C-alpha cells in the first residue's frame, strides 16, 4: 500500500475509532506505523520524523494545556497526535510532489 493511502486511512479510521470507541487501539496502530516507517527509511527521513515530533509535541501541549485553545475528548493529548502530525507532514510533502508546477497559480487566480 502506498504511504499516502496508509496515512489517509489511518487518520480517517483512527479518528472515527477514537471518537466512537476507544483511543488505545489508535495509539498502538499509529505508533506502530510510525515505528515501522522509522526503521525502514533512510537517515534523512528519520531526522525529519524526530524533528516533527520534537516541534509538534510541545506546541500541541502548549496550545491545549496552557493557552486552552482546545481540549481533548478524554483529557490530555492522545499518544497518536504527535505521530499524526508527522503523517500529515509527510502526506503534504508527497501530494505536493504530484501537483503540476503551474496549478497552484491557476487556483489562486480562480479564487481571486
Q: What's the average pLDDT? A: 91
Q: Which blocks of ≥5 consecutive residues have pLDDT under 50?
A: none
Helix content: over 70%
Give, in order, the helices and strands. Answer: HHHHH
Task: Tell me how many strands there are.
Answer: 0
DSSP strand content = under 5%
Radius of gyration: 16 Å
- Summed up, the helix count is 5
Largest sheet: none
Identify the overall geometry.
globular
Note the gap between the termini.
Answer: 38 Å
Structural domains: how many: 1
Secondary-structure content class: mainly alpha
Written description of the protein model:
The chain is mainly α and 112 residues long. It has helices at 3-20, 24-40, 43-66, 80-98, 103-111. It has one domain (3-111).
Short description:
The chain is mainly alpha-helical.
Keywords:
single chain, 112 residues, mainly alpha, globular
Secondary-structure blueprint of this entry?
Elements: H1 3-20, H2 24-40, H3 43-66, H4 80-98, H5 103-111
Amino acid at each position: 500500500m502506498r504511504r499516502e493511502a496508509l496515512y489517509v486511512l489511518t487518520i480517517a479510521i483512527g479518528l472515527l475509532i477514537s471518537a466512537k470507541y476507544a483511543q488505545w487501539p489508535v495509539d498502538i496502530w499509529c505508533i506502530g506505523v510510525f515505528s515501522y516507517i522509522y526503521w525502514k527509511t533512510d537517515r534523512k527521513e528519520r531526522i525529519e520524523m524526530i524533528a516533527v515530533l520534537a516541534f509538534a509535541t510541545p506546541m500541541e501541549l502548549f496550545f491545549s494545556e496552557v493557552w486552552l485553545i482546545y481540549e481533548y475528548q478524554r483529557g490530555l493529548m492522545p499518544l497518536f497526535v504527535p505521530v499524526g502530525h508527522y503523517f500529515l507532514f509527510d502526506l503534504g510533502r508527497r501530494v505536493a510532489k504530484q501537483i503540476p508546477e503551474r496549478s497552484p497559480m491557476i487556483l489562486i487566480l480562480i479564487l481571486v
